[in-house]
Write a structure and sequence with these properties.
homohexamer; alpha/beta; UDP-N-acetylmuramoyl-L-alanine:D-glutamate ligase; nine-stranded mixed β-sheet; 11 helices; 15 strands; kinase activity (chains A, B, C, D, E, F); Sugar kinase (chains A, B, C, D, E, F)
């Protein structure tokens, strides 16, 4: 099987253990993650090959970040190690009950932000690919990142690959001279599949569910597809967060004029909420690849994968396809497997 | 008070901390356990002396396993250290919420499997005993283990000891030339008390609850006693597993034509589910010894002991009789004790 | 802003990690706490300056205890380091579900118990103060501690400071020659604000809610104020402990003839229950200082602060005023903050 | 083989890992030790049975201390669990290079100090014994401890057991009403073997090496034997401490008019210096039992055992006789054993 | 006693435990340090009060950094918390034997680099001071940092304080528009005491030891004093690094035309080499304050303090004056202190 | 550059931290290693691509082992995951000073031992290779492993690759029906480069240095080359182990009639001795590739690489070529790199 290729920034994540606060922690657990690379790594666990393209500082931290994804089988040969910039970091305080988890970002001036678009030869990178996936975080980081993202999408379209995006609008990330509302539309226009919430659609594209629409997600998705006719599938998770320790999620899909919604999964306790969305999209890529004619099945797989992710430490959804199918089949009581 | 003697294999347990998966863990917590030795150790905590007979490799791992049980007061003087075989291991991934805990066994070719039945002088081992307890795992391991188990039961009967068994049928353990269905009946025939679920009874003895029986456990127990007239008590826990983090258990007992069932305990979060059954039987041995005329009381003690075990790290139920009685008395809200 | 000054003993707290029992723990987490110093430290986190007066052994343990509070911004310049006595310790087993947390105290013969009342120059200590807070634990420790506490209250009254107390009657602490029932009333008589439960009021002052009173807390508070007319505010938390892992609390206040009660907060899981009461009183001092004319708001702040404390490791409530206000504003679902 | 019986206090040892200071440590490693019980535990590792008699608080700390020695095979059945007193503690800072290791004792008012001499039935305790060993720390703790020690020695003499003592004078331990110089002589008079340095001999017995004596240890030993004619063997280690990380030790023995001295062992790095003396005496008891006619061999064994102890974490010398013999045979280069 | 005031950047230090490399570490130990603040903290441990002025991001990392120094008694009231910039970090790999320790700096764009000189009111900050200390790292960071440093020195001179500097030239730090060779001389001109090696003197001031000078340090110091006549004392450590685990240091001083040099200390193993220079200067400030007329004694104290620092984990020299004097008195064999 | 391909078993390594013994360790550090795969991984760190062929159980342990080498860049695509057998383990106690490190192997019945030679298509595996490396451990494991090893060598010769072997005779590994003395010679006959000590040569090939030979290594190498004329280079390390914490090594090479020997490196302390030989051969492969005409330089590189390995935790030599060259250039004092 050919590869799914992802493109984006990978950061070091530093997190106090045992629900400690940053001001009291004598040690920090280290892992690495990025919204797009997490998708690649999860796909490999599910059994579908994936590669990631990114840019890292040519120092031990950059190498450690890349090696983390190598470990889980992601093809990192297209990554660039640069003398410019640093490794982006984020510090994660893990909340509990009514205390929220909290992230302190420290990602400014990263090597990825300073990447040289010419360093990525997309014809070569995508030569063995079947799919390109990116997130809205990538073009938010810098003009050069946005430019490289656009070049990747253009090459992918040229080659007839499937293109997906998690549009994922984060207002405070967009700090260079261009506006998300200008940068994102031409990029999204090249996508076949998007993860997009109603909030994202309004913020980025000015799309509001039609007044009185019976289902606001459907109304949004219809307008999105009307605006960007390449899009064939719009998906999202709907979270009903009960507490920092108890999440309830369901999966939503609009495709071919049809609306699909799963029953919810309750996750309590939540072990690690980071990467929940990334595991949803990787689950959907897997599901729609394996069951191309059965959207409900693909969505069920994606949602179960995301539910499982909340029980896995770290950014990456370290679960096999069999483990996800076990959940899809209704085995949600966590009975000991010997 | 004389000893309860148990016989069986003790394994090293290696477990990633903090709900990590085995593929990501840089360190593994070490403890030791075995379905029968756990009963012995729990009994000592409750205040009743116990000894364990087993077989270990004569290397640091074998000694560490034995010393773990010595630490908690089990008389290990009858254990054999052998040049044959290795220490059995099991790797435990601790699940959470809808992700199940999962065990990878690595116990083949253990010293216990290779034990020499002649190395166990049951007349001497049982000289200071009042009770013999074994589990269905022991005869499953090897022909020589089954033979030693039979010899132990025969000697116990000869001396008029009480004999109990947790029949605990595990299909994939039985890998030597004999069938569980042939090996187990003569061993169970020597027991006064058995832990047996309806599934065990069907798999091992072909006993199915009578069609239309109002209570399938009672129906099973009646047939079991009819088949093995030495048996006076049949007990079991009934689990309604809500998730890997939330267990609900109640205790069942059939004795003297009467059926007893406790109200359930909810345990959330579950700290360590391993040994939950062993703590039930040790609780019942304690309870029925202290309250021989009050089966409901014995069952209540056993069930509370098992509930508490789910909050204790490791295989062994490290709780005192007073702590169990505190639960039996209805103090289940976990109020801080100063 | 002037300081809140607290007076009392600080102990080393030694606690097995991961819900282990003391008999199985190969390492103990170390922190430090005291019912009054915890109030000072929490106030500094909330943005109100505070100082603590105490007595420590002149050894590394005493210095470590004082430094722990220095770290969180408490002014420790009035602390005394003495050659008499030792640092009090307490060992905390963290329970789970129906297994209670359990404290083994080891605080006898501490330097605080042996303090010399003359070593505390209250005129100087309170020179920059606006408020004095103490707890009923302090006079319980020794006659000299009770004497110093009385001297502090007297000087505070002389200077017109606000005085508050958490009366916190612990029967087994009172082991020197005097009775709590004799020692406490004159001290409480000097207070403007007390934390007092109905149990405390009965045990210490023989106050029982009037038969048939519609609200027993109000009845108690009315009698308390009648007895000690300096008192203007009586507060308490009402706990409905569900399990060692699930707490439900609400705040109660009687002031100016009015009764206030908050809606409850559920905390599940509880990360650390110790200091829950101390965080309530520090929250109330903060709240009533910032909103002197709005008792309900002060109480809401205090209760949210206490709820948050249950999610914070250690004795001290390491949360900012903004974080408490976030809860007061209804954000209790623990949604990730980026 | 019959048991060696030891008598004395066991303390909890709390130690910052990684050479941290107590003022900076967020966690403390826990182990347990006592100068006499360490001898018992080491003997069991060497293959000679041993029992220990002591007194512990009847709380989880006391049980944990006793279980630690049970784990390593010491027969603890003669230990007393008392409602009086606490578990003695000591805090150990592990130095490095020119920074010394440092102990903060917190052992006042222990259960052992408050022991009731009548609680120890020495006839029963020594019934299965061949040897009694005690240290000078025991009579230093309290009058009742000294009294029990005297009773043990008297009963041992009555039964013809060998009695040994590590006289180990620690000036600041003797804080009750009696003087070491009065208490120790009658106890030492009952010994066959003593560990005694020249400093101890001078401090306790006023014995000074004869002026101009060619070997001051021999001169001291001769006088000691002259004073206490029951003594047949005087041993000691001679330490040439190079740094907290580099120790050099040799063993000294005076017996039957002959002087023996081993060549020195260099230990660098030192992993754990505590218990170095206890491992010397346990090694000598083992060695003199196995090689009664070859004092030099016994001494060589003792010295090698002590050298090895410096590489073992914790108070107890967890090495086998074969491992000690490996060193005695000259294998000191630490070559990897596969 | 009045305060020693230091000014400079504090960074978070992240370090793999157990000599691991950054690419393999699953967790990083956290501490905080800065070349000037380390001096302040060490002085407080020695018994001399100190304050630090710095600039931190107004986020949990910035607060944690400041709290770390508060913990060890440094007066941090003059620190500024800013919305600009981030907390500087450094990643430390701890080497061993012939593998060097290695630092990856990640300090660009820190809040300290972006400080506003007007935010520091030196008249107020130095109001309670007797001494100002700074390092050559501070003016290297940014033009505004250099400007604030100059303002501090000017105010200190105006008030007649002693001013000291560790000139500490680090070529790759100077990355803004100005040259060290232009910025440093006017700052050094305001100093009474400097730490300066011959390399620093040549790089910064073009001072080379006179050809044929019998002692190159003396020759350099004479020229330095000739150039900057305010300087009365020039000090340095001379390192003969044997390996990453074995350091040999001696102290050098030129004062009043006299040259002083200590005998060397060997430190093996080195526990933590970071802050070795800072501990030397803090030791010298202490020593010259206590023994103003005895330069050799001050230098001996400084050198012993620095030697001890190499055995202390973290940036800060957590040793008391008594502990340093113990070394000065020749107790360098690390003999256990009970 | 084409790949170096290695073939052999990878085991899980479980090791108590902090020099603990296995009988006392509550947790074990986990890593993975194998004598041949370690060579592949080290080469990737040095900058030369490498692949490994092996056989693992199709369970989480097998995947974790493979992922560990993926992490460090080894191409693992040719590895086989099998339903037969288990993951081999080894338990490593890390010694100190005169206490040796000690390995308890638990590798019987591994998936590698049970490999199917037909599962390895050497034409495909070696298609992108320039070099094949194997160790004498591989043919020792089982007949099928030996057969696969022979097939690999044959295919490598057919393709004109360089073939190297670390003959590494371990007597107690050879437990199947064939003798090392029969199996090894035809395999070694296919090699261009061998690591071989004089002991190996005698045990495997009956080669003894000529009586009176001035250099026994040269004499052995000459005979080895005479026997196996394909061999062009014979290398070895000469260890002068001082203690478990202090190693001294030098490198030896015989090539083209010339003998080369490096000066020794002292390593103290040794952080991790395992893989010292593997790092020597990987260093030599690197060195002889980069400096084909300068054998002394290749040997110097290999020896420095091996010296550095002793300071690196885990089996794999995680050092760059630049770091090795830094040592070769004489920078062995471990001076801090900023």
């Amino acid at each position: 099987m050919k590869q799914v290729v992802t493109f984006g920034e990978i950061m070091m994540r530093l997190s106090p253990p045992n629900h400690e606060r940053l001001t009291q922690a004598p040690a920090l657990a280290v892992t690495y993650g990025g919204g797009d690379a997490n998708v690649a790594a999860a796909l490999v666990q599910l059994g579908q090959p994936a590669a990631h393209a990114g840019c890292f500082p040519a120092n031990p931290l950059g190498h450690a970040a890349a090696e983390h994804f190598q470990r889980y089988g992601v093809d990192m040969q297209h990554c660039v190690f640069s003398e410019n910039g640093r490794l982006g970091l984020y510090f994660l305080e893990v909340g509990a009950s009514l205390r929220p988890s909290r992230i302190v970002y420290d990602r400014a001036e990263s090597s990825f932000a300073h990447l040289d678009p010419a360093a990525f030869d997309w014809a070569k990178i995508l030569d063995n690919a079947r799919w390109l996936h990116w997130t809205g975080i990538t073009p938010a980081i810098s003009a050069s990142a946005a430019q490289a993202c656009g070049a990747a999408i253009a090459e992918a379209r040229r080659r007839g690959l499937t293109v997906s995006a998690d549009v994922n609008y984060r207002r405070n990330l967009w700090q260079y001279s261009q506006r998300a509302q200008d940068v994102m539309p031409p990029l999204v226009a090249g996508c076949d599949l998007v993860v997009c919430t109603e909030g994202d659609a309004e913020d980025l594209f000015g799309i509001r569910p039609a007044a009185g629409a019976p289902n606001s997600f459907v109304s949004m998705a219809e307008q999105l597809i009307a605006r960007f006719p390449q899009i064939r599938q719009v998906i999202a998770t709907k979270r009903e967060t009960q507490s920092a320790s108890h999440e309830r999620i369901r999966g939503l899909l609009y495709q071919g004029g049809e609306y699909y919604e799963t029953t919810p999964y309750d996750i309590a306790p939540v072990i690690d909420r980071i990467g929940g969305g990334d595991s949803f999209i990787s689950g959907f890529i897997y599901g729609t690849t394996v069951h191309p004619a059965d959207p409900a099945r693909a969505l069920a797989f994606a949602t179960a994968a995301s539910a499982l992710k909340h029980t896995i430490a770290g950014d990456i959804n370290l679960v096999s396809a069999a483990e996800v199918e076990h959940i899809v089949a209704g085995n949600t009581t966590g009975r000991l497997l010997r």
